[in-house]
Fold this sequence. Notes:
By secondary structure, this protein is of the alpha/beta class. The chain has helices at about 40-60, 70-85, 85-100, 105-120, 125-150, 180-185, 200-210, 220-225, 245-265, 295-300, 325-335, 360-365, 380-385, 385-400, 415-435, 450-455, 455-460, 470-480, 495-510, 530-535, 550-555, 560-570, 575-585, and strands at about 5, 10, 15-20, 170-175, 190-195, 215, 230-235, 240, 285-290, 305-310, 345, 405-410, 445-450, 465-470, 515-520, 540-545. The two termini are about 45 Å apart. Bound molecules: phosphoenolpyruvate (PEP) and magnesium ion (MG). Phosphoenolpyruvate binds next to strand 10 and helix 18.
Amino acid sequence: MSFQVFGIPVSRGVAIGRAVLVASSRLDVAHYFINEADIEAEIARCLRARDEVARELSALKVDLPEDAPHELAALLDVHLMLLHDEALTGATKQWIVDRHYNAEWALSAQLEVLARQFDEMEDDYLRERKADLEQVVERILDALAAESGKTPRGAASVTQRDFAGEDPLLLVAADIAPADMLQFKRSVFHGFITDIGGKTSHTAIVARSLDIPAVVGTREASRLIRQDDWVIIDGDSGLVIVDPSPIVLEEYRFRQRQSELERARLARLRHTPAVTMDGERIELHANIELPTDAEAAVVAGATGVGLFRSEFLFMNRDGELPSEDEQFEAYKAAVEAMRGMPVTIRTVDIGADKPLDRMSANELRHEHVLNPAMGLRAIRWSLAEPSMFRQQLRAIYRASAFGKIRLLIPMVAHLAEVRQILESIKRVQQQLNDAGHAYTKVELGVMIEIPAAAVMLPLLLKHVDFVSIGTNDLIQYTLAIDRADEAVAHLYDPWHPAVLQLIASSIAQARAAGKSVSVCGEMAGDPAFTDLLLSMGLRSFSMHPAQIPSVKQRILRADSAKLAGALPAILASEDPQETARLALSTGGQAAVRTFH
Ligand code: PEP
Ligand code: MG
């Protein structure tokens, strides 16, 4: 039966495919397609792991002390029985044969199917056996990991494979941590649906950087959608249609083709300089998570990297941080890939909804860090770990010998922080001199993400070379709305007068001080805000590479002088969005250029 689920649209476009349900806790098992020729070997690998667990459990049973509670032996019997149940092993085999899933993926897919059946059981005793089933599957997964050693859980694991005849797959999960999302780069999934999250949660941001349709904050999609259901994701409206009728399916296939055509049309703007109709040149930079993303930035026509979220280099490493040399290689790779264009590297912004890995996410919870968004994140964490911070600074400075690098500091709120940063830079430069490492001038910038920084900007500007406005956090902290919490997503409002005042005054003050200013939050990549930001005097935008063409199209049609004239009315308005709609629509469209 067809039904719909509503959520928050976070990444545009239409995706149609079969649902793959993955429990959050199992997102870090390896997910990859195997070759036809390897099916038998994969089944054998799975059965070997099962037999290994059976041996372990039988040995445990034999070794049970005499005074062990009788229930313990009975429990081991239940586990042994589940282990050999056809509903687990037989069906797991089927996932491997039919869908070419690797053993770990097949096992967790089947676990999802069975867990739902257990959830629906009337009998309490039987329902509680779900936990036993989960333990058994965990044991098999551990045995598989121990056997292979090559594809550890948590390693980048979802790979794209040309699998003729395979239906597109859409990932459905209660939640996906940013670190897990990162693993899905170049993945097999054509879309994402989660129960949790807001428009600028980091999970949504990474989904957007993948440029595939995604809907978050659906609250219960992962409970309602079943493994293998046909699903449509409408990433423009936030609608998820499960088991669509043929007519609806046809309609969405048509829309999918239309949006592909539109993308192809916009891609032709790649080499067109971003200049407004009245001749203002605009920098369109890219936001990247990994050095390998730089290539996509160049392809999309970015004229630099405006935000390299370096924290993604620190994730999925089981708590071990990347060494100075490893970081240096990563920054150098990004700089070289940008071929002389500037690369703005932001120092680590760990914390809040971006834990280092799942373990530290759990630690955060257990240590009762009540409000991680306001806790030890970003520069606060870096300054609390000075040797880690200096290590990152050294790596960044060393990479500056290979191209133009700018250093960006997240979450600054105090002048004392800036002074500490400048001290650290001085010390790092001395260390590099002593060690004979080459480096060049690196401009220092701070992010304007905390209202305090926006309000005291003239003071900050005396010490830094540039600023970058992080609207995602600036909105979160100005309005006291957790950006990752779907329950308050409706209050997360970029059009709020207080938000607009802070952005407009930051841009104006930076320009008045002769310092460069850009916006690197999600507002910069949304064409709905392009005219507004131009009207505020913004001349440098940073966004996901995939967003560059549509923002560029807006710029090419804009008249910045006319737009600037509309700003006072918008800022004074009780309903800025409506005022902007009226005022800005006359600000640029006088004559529309053609690009073909
Ligand atoms: C922001 O806050 O707007 C920003 C760009 O940083 P992040 O989204 O990584 O917090
Ligand atoms: Mg931020």
